[in-house]
Amino acid sequence: MIPLQVSRTSQFIAFVRDISDRKRAEEERDHWTQTLERQVSDRTEALQRANVRLQEVDKVRSAFVTIASHEIRTPLSSSLGYVENMLDGITGPLSERQTKYVRQIRDNTTRLTRLINELLDLSLIEAGRLPLHKTDVQVEQLIQAVVETLQPLAQAKSIELVFEHPPRVSRYRAIATSSIRLC
């Protein structure tokens, strides 16, 4: 309101603004803010519960991998011992064909044992009980080892597996555990 004097008469000028829409908008904003805050809180609690559940499942999975790996490794080690005895001639002479097959059994059993050990290492890494360190990796030797491992499978399918490399490839830094040897 603004007071005015016009011909000795006091008058007032008033400006009135209807703020009903603004008040309704503010109330609606407050309502939606509270609704969103409640929903965010509910979702946060649900995510926290899901995270706890995932951690429990991960512990169970890790324990399963550890137990299963140990249980599988034991008969593999025993089988490998019998195969080595056969190759050493303890069980009697083997024909050339038998020797070839027994060597394949030995190689595959050794490979399975190595995979089981890597699963166990992975469980230990996830549990934080196996430290990681950086080491030099000779890429050529690593690839050559993979090629040699896959060579019998390739030959069985009449596939020629050849490793050709440029001379500039040599060493790289990699993260490894103390029990994993990277060439």
Description:
Helix 1 runs antiparallel to helix 2 (96-126). With 183 residues, this protein is an alpha+beta fold. The protein has helices at residues 20-87, 96-126, 139-156; strands at 2-6, 9-13, 132-138, 171-177. It has a two-stranded antiparallel sheet with strand order 1-2. Strands 3-4 form a two-stranded antiparallel ribbon. It folds into 2 domains: 30-130, Helix Hairpins; 131-183, no CATH class. Strand 1 and strand 2 (9-13) form a beta hairpin. The longest helix is centred in the first third of the chain and has 68 residues, at 20-87.
Brief summary:
This protein has helices at residues 20-87, 96-126, 139-156; strands at 2-6, 9-13, 132-138, 171-177. The protein is an alpha+beta fold and 183 residues long. It has 2 domains: 30-130, Helix Hairpins (Orthogonal Bundle); 131-183, no CATH class.
Helix % is 55-70%
Using the coordinates above, name the CATH class of the largest domain: Mainly Alpha
List unreliable stretches of 5+ residues. none
Q: What portion of the residues fall into strands of 2 or more residues?
A: 5-15%
Query: What is the element string, with H for helices and E for strands?
Result: EEHHEHE
Name the overall outline.
elongated
Terminal CA distance reads 90 Å
Q: Mean pLDDT score, rounded?
A: 86
| CATH fold-level name of the largest domain | Helix Hairpins
Number of helices: 3
- The beta-strand count equals 4
Overall CATH architecture of the largest domain: Orthogonal Bundle
Biggest sheet layout: 2 strands, antiparallel
Oligomerization category of the chains in this entry = single chain
How many distinct domains? 2
Alpha-carbon Rg, integer = 37 Å
Widest beta sheet: strand line-up: 1-2
Structural class: alpha+beta
